[in-house]
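dumping this here before i forget
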Amino acid sequence: MEEILKNISSNDLKKLRMLLSIIPGNEVKEIVTLQVFRDEYSNLIKQNRSKAYHVSVMSSFKHLVDYFGDQKSIRELGLKEIESFCSILQQKVNKGYRVYYRTIKAAFNKAVEWGYAKENYFSKIRLPKWQKMAPGFINDNQLLAVSNQIKNDVVKNIVVFAFYTGMRLDEIINLRWRNIDLQNRIITVGDEDFVTKGRRQRFIPMDDEVFEMLLRIKNPPNIQRTSAECRVQNEKKNIKIRLIELAGDASTTLSIKKGFVFCKDNRERFTGDYISKTFKLACRNAGIDNKIHFHSLRHRSLPILYKKVYLFIP
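structure:
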């Protein structure tokens, strides 16, 4: 059966089903190949999930199709075949196979819902236990060293902002001034134009460092600010204040409050890829551990912020 399917195109299968359907008393079982399911599932993900997740789905399906062939019928994938595939995948992609496995398992849950498969055999696979390493992080001194390696002032602000808020990169580059409440010192993450990864809006209180940075960005140094706006006590002569002095000198001017907080000169937002690569290069030039990446900035801030955020959630 497998050899026959390899030589039959999807159009030929449609014609075959049509011919069989006109035979009296003949019940036709729909044959759905991996190619057909992949394309249909891909369209679904495009409409409902992030671009990054869609890329992950397509990468996962590539491993699946490379192993079984795109004309393999889903109904022919039994537990033995799935176990064999997972074993090969683990050998082929030793570090990332767990992500591929979870992504494909989620896809086949949908295949069962659509009636394409009777059972999701990926759910019966038991992956070997593995040592989960502690996430990398950087301290204040390392942040200062990295900031010194970044020439773009706006990117420098983004890095320091991420360090003190624990926000994800995608959340920061999509942050708009309408999400900033300087009076109550609250940052709103997620709105009608930006959906968070967890699909839940949340509120983050501003530390003095973040508050002072946002004031400097919104009101450049040449604009006089009242003492009421400047809530940071300048007599705090510690490394945090020095970091803000370093990161807060960006000549960012925004006349439209609905614009992005961190943007290019043309008021367009930066891409996450550009920020990540710039940060990684700065870490390398500063002699920081190669395991550190932009997401590592969250690991330092989150444990502190969680205690504060709960106070502002209704």
